[in-house]
Write a structure and sequence with these properties.
Protein name: Shikimate kinase
CATH superfamily: P-loop containing nucleotide triphosphate hydrolases
Number of strands: 5
CATH class: Alpha Beta
Cofactor: Mg(2+)
CATH architecture: 3-Layer(aba) Sandwich
Strand order of the largest sheet: 2-3-1-4-5
Largest sheet: 5 strands, parallel
Pfam families: SKI
Number of helices: 8
Radius of gyration: 15 Å
Strand content: 5-15%
Enzyme class: transferase
GO molecular function, one term: shikimate kinase activity
Length: about 170
Amino acid sequence: MSSQHIVLIGFAGTGKSTVGKQLASRLGCASTDVDAEIVKREGEEIASIFANRGESAFRAAETEALEAVLSSRETLVVATGGGAVLAPVNRELILRSGFVVALKADPERLIERVSQDPDRPLLQGNVRERTYKLLEERKHAYDFAHLTIDTTSLAVDEVVERIAQAIQR
């Protein structure tokens, strides 16, 4: 397994996908989104996988997609799903494969960012209640990152700049 990827972890709405694309562009490498990889591999939208096969089937597909993406020989900026870090095997994969950046944000900002998105099955229903509950459950889930950035009041290019500087050190 190579040790050259930059892996973005964090709760839904912290900016992993958006930051990932811009960071890859800045670094001159490719970016990939693990959730998009799952959809491609499974031939089914994430919300549909949750609805039809349940969260455990989704998590199994997530680990397979993560392994496939992280085994790439080319340097990638990898945006993971918010819950990808919950499985110990995924945390090990992520840590082994490169520089890990956790993005976090104020709960109210997260709610604002995700509340209009139907593609977030774990946040359906009362978004505020679900967000606070999941944040509490995952309080320390992202603590293993090499770098943590609070994106609450930062522009995407500011987040990208901080990560690029950290990588160059």
